[in-house]
């Protein structure tokens, strides 16, 4: 086994000077030894004690949190021997055991106020303290204890140097009286449990004493350690002679008594460990034997198996083992000399720490998970020790990790064999902590703590991961070291991560480097399962199999520096082998892309065809693995693009296509993973099933948009463009390829919404559509899904934005479009007007205004124009804006807009449109009040004259009168009189009388001659009949005309055609001769006019011409020219074929088939 080395991540965070001075003073004056430990709880505390001085510091920063100097009854100060963390009533404190000249004192120290709140005199010298309960009375938390203990409020087990074990009542129900270690209470020791505990306790408490039950009478053998296991409800007692006692706290009787294999060596530490899903209801107890303070050099660990008859889960959620069966030793580990047989003679071994880390994972996919008793998925024991070797100035410090689940998998060996250290042990890993000793020497190392939350494994290289990936050497975790002057933080990285670092730092892949990297990847579990069984010795050095394995490990683990470094080195190196190496890596990368895409398709098909009902963690991990792999491969191809030199146009296009395809597939996989995490797929095929999670209800969404399109068609009445849904505009801007894509799946119409999530996600594989446009369509559909789901929440949208770093302005824009399509005009305009919203582009302006006008929202359309001030680049846009202004009776603004955008080419078109709208809206009277140019006046007169109707003639009459054109007005009025002779409508005749009287008054202004001429011109008159006489056509004096014979125009082409036709007449007489093919070849030489290409031919020609060009990415949501989806003639056709997903056919349930 290769040694792993911890790395120091912080400097020595020294304790405050006052803390160091207080401890140093006590050590100097009282000749006491310094001791210290981490509290082990979640409070993040560490304590240091020397003589009567107690210092409590932060385990993170080293700052002083609390301090206290204990006083004794006589002049001799006490000595702090034992400290245990204890919490009660939302308060944190310490149980402190003081040794005095004539006995001991148990103190309850409150960290919040830095003083002693309870103190009890103990018989003998205290050696161990263990909290049992911090509650009392009829509490659920004490239900598992003996009935007599339930009358006590707070129970602590205390052991002495003569083997006595006491259960002390802490009297937490009475903290009113002030008490300290000098005025400690006495104990009322009860050897046999009386019948009336409450009365006895009340009487004892009234006398100022604490009730105490003697669990074990003095035996003369000192108790070295205590440990209470709540899951088995057992109090474990370790003795200085190597014996171990297990006591049941429900019956207060000893269940087992045994001697450890280490002999008469004190038991200094105990810890509990539970495996995962043991069918025999077994759990385990670690016992550590060490000489520690006494002379000698012994340190050994023993794993004891505790078998129980039942394992159940209590109402509080706590796991409880009951019905103890037996205890047997199954494993031993000697840390003295046998573990390092070749590292010199060891003079002294010091045990530092022991802890167990367990992590539970709820299996929500199991149907019986409600009643199942959970067990830890991760269960490791972590221990550390120091070794002094002869001839070395500094001690060596080690940290070992024992994985009990992997020990089960290794068939539960009874000891660690020496050869397992030289190779790879499947259940034990070792880290060296010499870095902290080198940095902090000569400071004394007191304790080591591994942070539970930091314990984790890296990302598996493949799924399922190789066997080596589950070894404890793949763990990463953070460590804090407690020294006599401060704390130091470290990190222990896995062998897998160390391998990745070596891959990143390795130079060009030579034969030796390939072999070494292959060996490290094999041991580190970074190879795929296919290559795990292939040992390096069975392959020749620098073989292609080993190189492919190293490349796979580098890509799968994200160590891309290896590949990119080699690519840069080979491109700069002018060697014949460099080109071969580059070609090999490029071909391997592209083949890896193809294989990964096939694997991705196989994973995704069950998500969309309805064959699976939920997404299991294995599927999600496989998707993540594919996405990470594709992302790494895309980076490698991008490195080829940036570093490649002197590429041909075809080679550059081919490489560009490969990089583009890989990046698109990676994005597609990333979106699929997000949809899976949001529980959107698999789609719900049963309409009667109402899910609490959001799901894609295609029939409901489709019915809404079909009905809304029909409604817009009715409202348009041929006047407006009914195709004004914003989502239809967004889809149409992406080109015809989206319509073809959405027609591919069963039930697809080519329009929004897509028939399935599969059709939506295929949008991300279109190479000519920009990523932001794809996200916009997806966001729009997510809004529809949230709107139709029973639990409407925006957390899904927020998650999508965060996952793909979508700007907030884009989501506001899409929300505004969605609200407009759902007729929520006010909120839609509020979002579109928001300053953070991405500014709309011309086609969006047009659709928004068309939609508002089509649905009768004229005022909101005018408000939109006034707020957004869109630009007008075409006559159609000017006509639309004129219509909006005139619909809101803004005549002056419309007239100014028209004059601003008229040109010689469109003036008549715009004027005619405005006159028509004014006539339709009844605004002709306001129009005639405006000043007209000659062109405008001419167009108006032409418009009023061509449109029949008395009203138009009257408007024209008013127009003439307003501009003092009296003669045309009189002439028009006279013609209207003639037309009115055959009309008997009384209202028209009444209007004619008023009009005639008005014109008579105007006519008086004119001279009599002009008035008479104006009237006479309009009267009908008869043209005198005339005789028509035909005269001969005059002849030109300078030429003599001849009538030419009618005939065809002779050209060179017609001449050649006639000659060939003569040849054909001759050759037809001799059909059996073999000269016809020559004739046709001759016909091919004739130049004929080429007809214009059809649309399909033109499209294929354009596709062929664009095959060698690079891909163009357009701006978000803007109009663009799209390339044809046909890539048959393209050099990159084989690459772009990867951008297709297999067709998905919905799986029909058996019940549906029977129905």
From TrEMBL:
Boundaries of every ELYS beta-propeller domain copy: 1-489
Family matches, as InterPro entries: ELYS-bb (IPR032040), ELYS/MEL-28_NucAsmblyFactor (IPR052620), ELYS_dom (IPR025151)
Primary location group: nucleus
Keyword annotations: Nucleus
Segments forming domain ELYS-like: 724-946
Top-level taxon in the UniProt lineage: Eukaryota
UniProt xrefs under Pfam families: ELYS, ELYS-bb
GO CC aspect terms: nucleus
Record localization: Nucleus
Protein name: Protein ELYS-like isoform X1
Protein's organism: Pipra filicauda
Gene name tied to this protein: LOC113992455
